[in-house]
Design brief:
Distance between the termini: 160 Å
Strand content: 15-25%
Helix content: 40-55%
Shape: elongated
Strand order of the largest sheet: 13-12-11-16-15-14
Number of strands: 31
Low-confidence stretches: 1-14, 20-25, 857-862, 895-916
Radius of gyration: 66 Å
Number of helices: 24
Largest sheet: 6 strands, antiparallel
Mean pLDDT: 80
Length: 916
Amino acid sequence: MSGRPGRPRGVGSPRSSRRGVRSRLKVRSAAGQVLFLQIVVAVLLITAAVVALTFQTRQDSERDARNRSLAAAEAFADAPGTVEALRSPDPTAALRAHTDAAHRGSGVDFMAVMAPDGTRYADTDPTLIGKRAEGVERATAGTAFTEIFKGAPNDAARAVVPVTDADGSVVGLVAAGVTVENVGDAVNRQLPMLLASAAGALVLATGSSVLVSRRLRRQTHGLGPTEMTRMYEHHDAVLHAVREGVLIIGDNGRLTLVNDEARRLLELPAGAEGRHVTDLGLDAPIARLLASGRAVTDEVHLAGDRLLAVNTRPTAPYGGPPGTAATLRDTTDLLALSGAAEVARERLKLLYEAGVRIGTTLDVVRTAEELSEVAVPRFADFATVELLDPVLRGEEPTGAHTEMRRAAVSGGGEDRPFQPVGDLIRFVVPTTPMAAALASGHAVLEADLTVAHGWRSQDPEGADRALEYGIRSLVSVPLQARGVVLGMANFWRSESTERFGEEDLAFAEELAARAAVAIDNARRFTREHAMAVTLQRSLLPRVLPEQDALDVAYRYLPAQAGVGGDWFDVITLPGARVALVVGDVVGHGLHAAATMGRLRTAVHNFSALDLSPDELLGHLDELVSRIDEEEGDDGGDGIAGATCLYAIYDPVSGLCTMATAGHFAPALAHPDGTVDFLEMPVFPPLGLHGLPFETAEVRLPEGSRLVLYTDGLIEHRDRDIDTGLRLLRHTLEDPANPSPEETCQAVFSAMLPPHRSDDIALLVARTHLLDPARVADWDVPSDPAAVAPVRAACGRQLETWGLGEIGFSTELMLSELITNAIRYGSEPIHVRLMYERGLICEVSDGSSTAPHLRRAATTDEGGRGLFLVSQFAGRWGTRYTPTGKVMWTEQSLTDGQQPAPEPDLDDLSWLPGEPL
C-alpha cells in the first residue's frame, strides 16, 4: 500500500471542478438567463466596438499621415525655386537646405527630392542621397499618389508628387511621409480612452441588465424558461377551456383580454380586443357594469337570451395594471332550479314572518285578520277566515262545525265576491272543499274552480260571482289546535296568478297550524280576561249610594293586558257623613282581583264599626299581614303589596279626616280654580307592620272638588310621577269649577296613556255643606227630669221641619236613648237632630260602654228599649269618639217607608226608664 493519503473521490478533481463551473454557469431562472445573455452580448458588442474604433483610428491616422505627406510634398513641389534647383548643375546642393527646412516645417518624418527616374537629389537621411527610390513610376508619369509603403528604409505612409516645368514636363519628384511606427503611436495614444469608454459602457450595460433582470425576476417570480413556458401553456389552456367567461378591461374601458367562453356568451365580434366595452353591442346594463369598474358578486344580467351571473374585481391590488377582471357564468339552465329554491326561500321567510306577525294582540278577531294579511298577496290573492262563534266569545269550541262566523277577509276591493265579515258561513254540503277539509283534518285543493262542481253545489250564485270576478283556484285548511277545530282558512288565487298546486298544501297547513295556535291562545286569553273582568266588575261598586254630602263621579279602566287590583268605593256613614276609599293591589289577574275584593269587603266591614281612618287602616294592615302569612304557608303568592287611602267627609262641619297607607295624597281643586295636593302623613303600604297610622284633617270649602286616583293614571313607562302630577294639576286648574263628571272626562282625555299596563281608578267628589237650619242640638243635664223638656223641644223642631208625622216614633226613640245616657252614661250628654235625606237622631255621652241588643224574657224588668229603637228606626247603631260614644238612628222619609208599628199597650217593657 502506498503511504500517501488518498483524496476523497470527486473532491478537487478536474472533473468535479468542471462540474462546479458548469453548475455556476447554469442559471435556472429566466431572469438570470436574461441577465447572463445581456452581459455576454454587451461584452461582445463593446469588444467589437473597441476593435472597430481601434481599426478606425488606425485608418484615420494613416489617412491623416497620407494627407499630411501629400500636402507637404505638393507644397515643396510647387514652391518657387524647386524647378530651378532641379535644373541646376548641383541639385543636391541647391535642394538640401530647402529640404531640411520643409521637413522641419511640415511635421513629416522624411522628405526626399528625386530625379524623374527616382534617384534622390536630397533626403532628410543623407545616407540615402544618390540612391534610387522604389515604386515612384506613377509620379514619373505625371500623377501624384499616396500609399503605405513597405520597404527600405522604413515602412511609411508616403506621398510622391511630380515636379513639372512650365510646359508640363516632369523634371523631378518630391516624396514626403510618416513612418508606420509614428502612425501606431497615434493609435496607442487614443487606445486608453477607448478602453475606458468601453469599460464605462460595460458597467452601464451590466447595471441596466441587472435592473431589467430584477424587474423580470419579480414578474416571473424566479421561474425558469421551462416553467414559464409551462405556465403560459397552462394559462392558455385554462383560459380557453373553462366554462366561465373571462374578460379583462383596462382602466380606460377598453377590452384587454377575452377567452372563448366569454366570446360565446356575449357574442363578441372578431377583433373585439382593444375596443371600448360600450362599442361591442352588449346590453346596456352589463356594458355599464363592465365599464364602471365597480366590484360586484353574482350580479345577474341579461345578455341576449341568456341570464349571466357577473363577478367583477379590480386587478390593481393583485399585481396587475389598473383595470377590471370579470367572470361570466351562464345561469340560464339553472333558472328553473333557482326559481324553485327562491320559492322555497320565500315560503320559509313567509312562515317566519307569520310567527312574528300573527298573534301580536291576543285578540281573536285581530289574530284572524293577521292570518289573512300575512297570506295576501305573497301566497294568495284573497284569504278568508271563519271561526266558530264560541271561539269568538273566548269559549271552548263545542257543537257542529257546519256553521262559522266570518272573521276576516283580505285582498281585492269593495267589489270582491265574498260575504262580509260577520256573516254566518255554512258548510252543509259535504262535497265542498271546506267540508272535506273539516272532515279529513287536512288541506284540500281545488286547482281549477271552473270544473269544481262540488264547490258550486254549496252556493251556485256566489260561485258564479267568484268565477266572473276571476277567481280560479282554492286551498281550504281547517284551523286546529290541541286536536280541536277552531275555524277555517280559505286561500284563493285569481286567473292572473299561477294556480295552486300540490306543493302548496304543506305550506298552507303549516301556516294554518301556526295561526291556529295563536287563535287558541287569544281565545284562552279572552276567556280568562273576561272572567277576571267579570270578577272585578262584580267586586267593584255597581251603583253609588244615595247621599247629599258629595256629588261623586268616577272612572275605572282595567289594564289592556289583564285586570288588576285597583278599586274605589263610596260608603255612607252615620251622621250624614261619607267615606271615600281608593286602593291598589299590586299585580294583575284573578289573584289580584280576588285580593281586591277581600280588601274592599274588609273596608266595608270596618267602616260599619264607624272607625276613624287611622284605626280602619290599622285593622286592614293586620288583615293583609295575616293573609300574607296564611297564603305564604300554603305556597301561595300572598299579597305583593297594597295601598289604600281612606277619607271621611262630614257635611255638617265640612271637615275631612284622611289617612293613607302608601297611597298618593288626593288633589283638592278649590272653587276658584286653584289646585293643591293635600299634605298627609306618609306611611308604608299595607302589610309591612309599620308604626300606627296617623290622620290628617282639612276643612273643605263648599264646592271644592276632592280628587282621588291610583298610580296608573299618573305613571307609566313613558311618563314619570312628577310629570304626571304636574299634568294632573294643570288639568284640574279650571276657574269654571266643572262638575265631577266633566272633571273625570277632562282628566281621562288629557292623561290616559296610549297603552294601559296598569288599572286606572279615578274618583272625583264635590263637597256640600248641610244647611245649618236643618241641624238642631241640645245639651242635656244628667237628670231624668230633663228628658221631657228635651223630648218636647225635639217635637217642636220636627213640626218646624214638617216632619210631625214621625214625631211620635222619634220622641219615643229619643226618650229611650236620652234616658239610657242619663242612667248608664256620663256627662256631657248631647242631643243632635239632622234633617238631610232622612232624619238623623244622635245622643252622645262621655261613656264608652257599649250597649247591645238582646231578647228580654217575660219576667225581665228591662232590656226592651233597644228592641223598640230597632223596630222604629231604619238604621241605628253606636260609634265611638275620643270623648265617649254616640247612639244614632236614621229614619227614611221616602214614600216607600213602612209605617211605624203601633206599640203593644199590653207590653209595658218599651216604656221610658227601662234599661236598654
